[in-house]
């Protein structure tokens, strides 16, 4: 994986996200992009626009960003880019992702809990896009993925073989368990939790279709199980 | 009410309604068409009458008279009137005409109009203009033929409609019989199946319609029922039978460890082995318990994704511990290039148990001769073939192989066993969507093929 996008509001869990991202970059020329969104200000002139859109960070955020830079510098094959984005729309996001050549998007817990309209829009657009998305879990330290549990939703109809093939291309972990979700995830949660502890599962995988409610669905898994969730788009698997 | 009757009645009602709608449409279109052509004839006559009226030349007027009389077909009650129009709303009135004033008003306004009374007497009026003077020409005639043909077509439609409904009744019955027969067949088959012969299945058809689906669903349900029924009934037997292996291993391990004093490292290894076997025991007990508790409803379980070659190697390791001199050969040379074909969603402890039971049978009933295990896989299925050169199974024993506690005469006289391993293995394989095929020849050996279908439905 070469390019990883992390939309963020620079909270504490950004460090774990960057560390995880660093771990999954391969090759010598990789970039981790921290995307910081802001609203387009109402301005009358170009110079006023430039003045209004100057990003501002708190000292705590600056220190977090510095820590991220340090982590990335130590790797030798990655660079950290900070991308300030004014406003967001579906074509804008698509072009941005194409331009950056994004292979994976990492969503942190804090970013998913952002209530700001701009961030919720961006999150929804990302969920509707075809890029693989890694939703990070509760823990704020770096993640190490070895064993995965595949959540099979009836509407997606994607076999374990296809998913494993897709995972093999980009990651090194193995799918060791599979849960078929017939109606709601809630009734399966005790069984899944038991399997997670028995088989030492450290990541969940789901295949999603472009659906408006997918965001809500995966969040409930995250909330209940606290594990990171890799969501791949069913249509990218052929 | 029986579904057969319901289908027939629904069919009759639906076809009746559609036929009625068609009849009404035909009737009205026919009536309109008749009216149109009759009015057209009146219109032609009105033109001729107007021409006669204008002619000052008596020869030409006579010519037109003859044309009207001989050239056009005579109409019943035919008559014509020419009324002079004096002003915007005034015209000469003829007392022979008994027409409503609205009709005249309509003619004055639109230039032409027509009306018909209850005796099918048509009146057609049109305004003509001749050298600045306007005339209203009214032609009247009775359309008896139109009326007769209307009655005629109504009769056709009524009798045709009735005949159609009678035909629809027979068609409906035919349709109902055709659709219900397979269901009746299924009902008949299902009645045969009771608690005592749960192993019976409905014959599956090659078709892919809803009824074939129903048959399959029913068979699946029977699979689960049978499995949970028997597993519940035989839990203690199965548990005792299957827990024997890990317990034997644990005992052997402890006996070896206790033979003499050993280094700490050796004890650690020994304890690790015991721990491993004990946790397997735990897993197995749990799996069997779950199986007993819920039957096996694969949908509500979190399944393990296992590589079938790894499962086979694990089984081989276990067999090595119980039969250290076994000659089981696992042939993995036919493996596919794409190793994802080897992955099977399963309950791993149970699957290991099932395959282990079958291979152990091979070892046991061949007096530790060679047992070949061949694994092959492709996109659609995974096939494990277990071949031994043992005592084989006599043909008369084959139908009873899957009955718990059944033991063949030859096997029972020479070997210790309980007749529980194969029935349980078969059930476990079946609930993983697999098939167990046994070919055997007495005295020569047995080939057991296990086929798991992995392709997506």
Q: Give the rounded overall mean pLDDT of chain A.
A: 82
- Secondary structure class of chain A reads alpha/beta
CATH topology of the largest domain in chain A: Rossmann fold
Largest sheet of chain B: 5 strands, mixed
If you consult CATH, what is the topology of the domain at 305-457 in chain B? Answer: Heat Shock Protein 90
Total strand count of chain A, please? Answer: 9
Side by side, the strands of the main sheet of chain A go 3-2-1-4-5-9-8-6-7
What would you give as the CATH superfamily of the largest domain in chain A? HUPs
Tell me the strand order in the biggest sheet of chain B. 6-8-9-11-10
Major pleated sheet of chain A: 9 strands, mixed
For the termini of chain A, the CA-CA separation is 19 Å
Strand content of chain A: 15-25%
What does this structure look like?
The complex is a heterodimer of chains A (238) and B (457). Chain A has helices at residues 14-23, 46-52, 59-75, 90-100, 109-112, 117-128, 160-170, 189-199, 214-225; strands at residues 3-8, 30-38, 78-86, 104-107, 133-135, 147-152, 174-180, 203-208, 229-233. In chain A, helix 1 (14-23) links the parallel strand 1 (3-8) and strand 2. The model of chain A is unreliable at 214-218 (pLDDT under 50). With 238 residues, chain A is α/β, with parallel strands linked by helices. The longest helix of chain A has 17 residues, at 59-75. Helices cover 40% and strands 23% of the residues of chain A. Among the domains of chain B are: 3-149, Beta-Lactamase (2-Layer Sandwich); 305-457, 2-Layer Sandwich (Heat Shock Protein 90), CATH 3.30.565. Helix content of chain B is 55%, strand content 18%. A 5-stranded mixed sheet of chain B has the order 6-8-9-11-10. In chain B, a hairpin with a 4-residue loop joins strand 2 (112-116) and strand 3 (121-130). In chain B, helix 1 packs antiparallel against helix 4 (144-192) and helix 6 (235-258) runs antiparallel to helix 7. The A-B interface holds A 149-150, 157, 159-161, 164-165, 168, 174-180, 182, 187-188, 191-192, 194-195, 199 and B 298-305, 338, 340-341, 343, 345, 454, 456. Strand 7 of chain A pairs antiparallel with strand 5 (302-307) of chain B, so a sheet runs across the interface. Chain A: It comes from Flavobacterium rakeshii. Chain A: This is UspA domain-containing protein.
């Amino acid at each position: 994986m070469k390019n990883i996008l992390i939309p963020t509001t620079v909270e504490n869990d950004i460090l774990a996200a960057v560390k995880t991202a660093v771990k999954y970059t391969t090759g010598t020329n990789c970039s981790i992009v921290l995307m910081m969104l802001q609203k387009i200000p109402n301005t009358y002139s170009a110079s006023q626009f430039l003045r209004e859109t100057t990003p501002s960070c708190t000292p705590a955020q600056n220190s977090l960003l510095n820590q991220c830079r340090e982590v990335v510098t130590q790797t030798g094959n990655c660079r950290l880019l900070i991308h300030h984005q004014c406003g967001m729309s579906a074509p804008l996001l698509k072009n941005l992702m194409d331009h950056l050549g994004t292979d994976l998007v990492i969503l942190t817990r804090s970013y998913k809990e952002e209530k700001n309209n701009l961030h919720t829009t961006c999150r929804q657009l990302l969920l509707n896009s075809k890029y693989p998305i890694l939703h990070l879990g509760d823990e704020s330290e770096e993640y190490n993925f070895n064993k995965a549990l595949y959540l099979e939703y009836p509407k997606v109809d994607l076999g374990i073989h296809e998913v494993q093939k897709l995972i093999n291309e980009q990651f090194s972990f193995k799918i060791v368990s599979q849960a078929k979700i017939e109606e709601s995830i809630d009734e399966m949660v005790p069984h899944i939790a038991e399997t997670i502890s028995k088989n030492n599962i450290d990541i969940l995988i789901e295949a999603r279709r472009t659906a408006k409610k997918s965001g809500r669905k995966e969040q409930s898994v995250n909330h209940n199980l606290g594990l990171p969730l890799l969501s791949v788009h069913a249509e990218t698997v052929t | 009410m029986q579904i057969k009757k319901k289908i027939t009645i629904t069919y009759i009602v639906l076809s009746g309604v559609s036929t009625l709608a068609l009849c009404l449409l035909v009737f009205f279109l026919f009536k309109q068409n008749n009216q149109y052509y009759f009015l057209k004839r009146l219109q032609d006559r009105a033109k001729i009458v107007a021409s006669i009226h204008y002619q000052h030349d008596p020869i030409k007027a006579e010519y037109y008279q003859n044309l009207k009389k001989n050239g056009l077909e005579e109409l019943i009650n035919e008559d014509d009137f020419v009324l002079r129009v004096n002003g915007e709303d005034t015209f000469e009135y003829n007392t022979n005409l008994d027409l409503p004033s609205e009709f005249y008003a309509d003619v004055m306004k639109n230039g032409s109009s027509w009306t018909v009374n209850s005796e099918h007497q048509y009146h057609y009026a049109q305004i003509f203009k001749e050298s600045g003077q306007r005339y209203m020409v009214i032609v009247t005639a009775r359309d008896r033929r139109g009326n007769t043909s209307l009655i005629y077509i109504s009769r056709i439609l009524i009798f045709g409609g009735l005949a159609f409904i009678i035909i629809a009744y027979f068609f409906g019955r035919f349709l109902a019989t055709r659709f219900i027969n397979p269901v009746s067949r299924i009902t008949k088959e299902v009645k045969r199946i009771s608690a005592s012969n749960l192993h019976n299945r409905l014959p599956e058809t090659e078709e892919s319609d809803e009824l074939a689906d129903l048959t399959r669903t029913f068979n699946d349900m029977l699979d689960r029922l049978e499995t949970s029924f028997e597993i519940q009934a035989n839990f203690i037997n199965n548990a005792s039978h299957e827990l024997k292996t890990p317990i034997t291993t644990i005992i052997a391990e402890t006996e070896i460890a206790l033979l003499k004093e050993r280094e700490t490292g050796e004890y650690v290894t020994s304890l690790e082995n015991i721990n491993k076997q004990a946790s397997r025991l735990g897993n197995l007990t749990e799996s069997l318990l779950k199986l007993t508790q819920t039957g096996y409803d694969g949908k509500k379980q979190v399944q393990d994704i296992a590589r079938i070659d790894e499962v086979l190697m694990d089984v081989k390791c276990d067999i090595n511990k119980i039969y250290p001199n076994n000659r089981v050969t696992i042939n993995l040379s036919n493996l596919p290039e794409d190793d994802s074909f080897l992955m099977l969603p399963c309950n791993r402890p149970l699957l290991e148990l099932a395959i282990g039971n079958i291979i152990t049978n091979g070892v046991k009933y061949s007096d530790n001769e060679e047992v070949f295990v061949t694994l092959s896989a492709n996109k659609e299925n995974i096939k494990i073939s277990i071949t031994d050169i043992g005592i084989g199974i006599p043909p008369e024993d084959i139908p009873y192989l899957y009955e718990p506690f059944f033991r063949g005469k030859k096997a029972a006289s020479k070997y210790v066993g309980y007749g529980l391993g194969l029935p349980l293995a078969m059930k476990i394989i079946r609930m993983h969507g697999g098939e167990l095929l046994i070919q055997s020849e007495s005295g020569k050996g047995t080939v057991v093929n296990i086929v798991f279908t992995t392709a997506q439905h």
